[in-house]
Design goal:
Elements lengths: L1 H23 L26 H6 L1 H21 L2 H14 L5 H12 L3 H12 L6 H12 L7 H16 L4 H15 L2 H14 L4 H13 L3 H14 L3 H47 L2 H6 L1
Helix pairs in contact: 1-3, 3-4, 4-5, 5-6, 6-7, 7-8, 7-9, 8-9, 9-10, 9-11, 10-11, 11-12, 12-13
């Protein structure tokens, strides 16, 4: 395993320079560094060197890993994300102990619009060392990007990630963000109120905090609080697109509530008029015929 990690470190270090070339060109313009281990570009997974060959030629294997990364980066840069995913699959097969290959595979598959496959790769990354915050957030974003209700497994996955991130002071806010996103997806208003309240104490000027507070107010149909939060969002410099959406939705809620109030007032007035008319009719009926004639 130590040799594998050494190969990975070497490849990643070298690729920081060589990858720049790959970013400016595609496969035909890239000269592989490894002369011993060739890549089958149609199916890179098919000829990943076996363990005995890697151990026998560690430097060449490091070059081979660098080649995989370089071609993958070039493919991503050119917009061919499925091709990039093929190289990252081979990279993951060659170095399965670390999360980085699975994370990059997930990223490329997401860019290619392959949500289900990306979720599998991201979930594989979560079980391996070397994870970064962005990997957790990409995974939860993919899960919560689902249309419709979450399965129990999906719900448990997001809840577990949120709890894990909450434990570390450096990622606590991100964990609460995940929890609020989950509350939004599941329409759990008490959870949304709770997590947005925590964020208000930890990061009151963060536009995300305000957007979650606003979402809670909208769920409660509290137009006054929603309007206050729109003003707050404008003060802290929320991006125009998000601010405009908040303003439009808040205006629609306020207009709807005003319309309902007017309707209730009219109906109340009509009800009172109807009650008066019925009372007058009853009085008229109770008066005898002579009284009515005399009147």
């Amino acid at each position: 395993m130590r040799k594998q990690l050494g190969f990975l470190t070497l490849a990643l270090t070298l690729s920081m320079g060589a990858g720049l070339l790959g970013a400016r060109a595609w496969a035909g313009a890239i000269d592989p560094l490894s002369t011993q281990f060739q890549i089958n570009h149609a199916d890179p997974e098919s000829n990943v060197p076996p363990m005995e060959q890697r151990n026998a030629k560690p430097l060449e294997f490091g070059y081979y890993l660098q080649d995989l990364i370089t071609f993958a980066m070039a493919a991503d840069k050119s917009g061919d994300h499925l091709a990039a995913a093929r190289y990252y699959r081979a990279f993951a097969k060659a170095v399965p102990e670390e999360s980085v290959a699975f994370s990059k595979l997930c990223e490329s598959l997401e860019a290619a619009g392959q949500r289900e496959q990306a979720l599998v790769a991201c979930r594989d990354a979560l079980g391996r060392p070397g994870l970064e915050l962005k990997d957790y957030l990409r995974f939860t974003s993919l899960v919560l990007g689902k249309t419709g209700p979450l399965t129990k497994e999906e719900l448990d996955d997001v809840t577990e990630v949120a709890a894990h991130l909450r434990k570390n002071p450096e990622t606590r806010v991100a964990g609460i963000h995940v929890e609020c996103e989950l509350a939004m997806h599941t329409a759990d208003v008490p959870m949304l109120q709770r997590c947005s309240g925590e964020l208000a104490a930890l990061a009151p000027d963060d536009p995300k905090t305000i957007s979650f507070q606003w979402a809670a107010a909208m769920r409660e149909e509290n137009a006054a609080e929603a309007q206050r939060l729109v003003k707050r969002a404008r003060i802290v410099g929320m991006k125009p697109a998000g601010l405009n959406r908040m303003e439009r939705a808040t205006t629609a809620l306020d207009s709807s509530q005003t319309s309902r109030a007017v309707t209730r007032g009219l109906m109340g007035g009509l009800a009172l008029a109807a009650v008066g008319a019925v009372a007058a009719l009853l009085i008229w009926r109770r008066r005898g015929p002579r009284q009515r004639l005399m009147a």
